[in-house]
Amino acid sequence: MTRLRSAYDRGHSLTLSDYVDAPYLAASLLKLFLRSLPTPIFPPVLHPILRGFPVSTSPANGVEYIGLRLHPSLTPQNFILLQYLVNVLHLISQSAQINFMTTKNLAICLAPCLLGDGDHGDLKAELELCGLASVLLTVLIDQYIVFALARR
Question: What is the pTM assigned to this prediction?
């Protein structure tokens, strides 16, 4: 992993299919990229919005909440990055029968990387926030057409 990142950072092209564990490397590189962002996609200022996400209602309510509360609060850069990420995750989820990466599995794996470092004190609150971000990301992946068409 370190060797791949170093090669990429030096500008060398990577062909992941040359590696036996390519799917794992690709996932690790994606998570590393998301964790390395100077500001996470869901920075602490958005955590109250995440905490208000309606997890126990219909996906339509989740989409509405995303459109009314989350979308306007994202920076333009994070909105574009999230659009691309959701598109890639949706494409991966389309092969869930082969790769076992359902939208829920993808969201569980990547949601913590969208939040940044966390509060460093209240583990219960951090776990709750990760769970909410995971549910929100699941809705985004499942409803990606709605999200992909949204414009600032």
Answer: 0.84
